[in-house]
Hints:
87% of the residues lie in helices and 0% in strands. By secondary structure, it is mostly helical. The chain has a domain of 25 residues. The radius of gyration is 24 Å and the shape is elongated. The termini are far apart.
Amino acid sequence: MFKYFKNSYSELVNKVTWPSFEQLIASTKVVMVASVIFALIVLVMDLVFENFMNGVYNLLG
């Protein structure tokens, strides 16, 4: 078990290519913008569905 953790740590430290700080910031910005766009799309879909359902409820009484 100790050998597994030792090998995992070695792989993490020596074999993984970590992004630079600039790449990290750029990727973070992309994720944040994409998340906001996705949230806005879900909001619009929710509002449209809510209005549709209110129309159905009003129609059916």
